[in-house]
């Protein structure tokens, strides 16, 4: 479902952030991506949703070859990928409901289908009662739950998360992890870059460690493996 073959990424400034990556991630897996700052974790996951293009090698996600995918086809490709960011990236001038509905509105889903899906999804993340509020009226943890709801409302096959608990306190981080677990149990592949040692060492999943743009370690039910 996600495959990289001999993937390299060299930024225009000359930095090589991916330096020969080969990996296969199957449907339904939960994968943590760990490693020191600047190791290439973000680049690795950004290439999975074509936020960055590989300079060499082949990447296939959900059967789509991202090497040959035209820029105009990227939005259609992304409909099957949910993305969650450390800083949420919600639209602060519209309601929680509308933030989640947005992805369904752009694909012109029927209004009754949109309403049902949005409320079901907000219910899954425990925020149905806050549907009318603005994101800025919510706590950080609640905002991250909205962003997760937005990422899954389309029922994507894959959810990619870049340090989703990076701005949250420990208790809130555990709450957010429960939601990712639930999404994964329902069959969605999760790829999550994280610096959260306690979570990685407690909720065991595959661990891919990136160092210097290469996969330094790839372990089923792995450990975080760094001091912090
Ligand atoms: P990580 O997520 O592990 O911190 P990144 O993938 O963000 O690592 O960065 C890997 C390397 O690529 C770093 O040296 C970083 O400075 C560089 N880098 C990341 N994004 C860009 C960019 N847009 N342009 C130039 N260099 C970049
Ligand atoms: P239920 O009937 O299952 O209790 P509701 O239809 O009352 O669910 O909706 C639950 C929450 O979602 C309420 O806060 C409601 O105001 C809000 N909501 C429902 N539809 C919309 C909408 N189109 N825009 C904004 N908020 C909405």
UniProtKB/TrEMBL annotation:
GO MF terms here are: ATP binding; ATP hydrolysis activity; transmembrane transporter activity
One short Pfam family name for this protein? ABC_tran
What membrane topology is given?
Peripheral membrane protein
Instruction: Provide the Gene Ontology terms for cellular component.
Output: plasma membrane
* GO BP of this protein: cell division
What positions does the domain ABC transporter occupy? 2-228
Database matches in SMART domains: AAA (SM00382)
Q: Where in the cell is it found?
A: Cell membrane
Among Gene3D superfamilies, the record links this protein to:
P-loop containing nucleotide triphosphate hydrolases
What SUPFAM superfamilies does the database record attribute to this sequence? P-loop containing nucleoside triphosphate hydrolases (SSF52540)
Q: Which UniProt keywords apply?
A: ATP-binding, Cell cycle, Cell division, Cell membrane, Membrane, Nucleotide-binding, Transport
Recorded superkingdom:
Bacteria
Task: Report the InterPro entries cross-referenced here.
Answer: AAA+_ATPase, ABC_transporter-like_ATP-bd, ABC_transporter-like_CS, ABC_transpr_LolD-like, Cell_div_FtsE, P-loop_NTPase
Q: How does it assemble?
A: Homodimer. Forms a membrane-associated complex with FtsX.
Similarity field: Belongs to the ABC transporter superfamily.
Give the protein's function.
Part of the ABC transporter FtsEX involved in cellular division.
Q: What is this protein called?
A: Cell division ATP-binding protein FtsE
Organism of derivation: Mesobacillus persicus
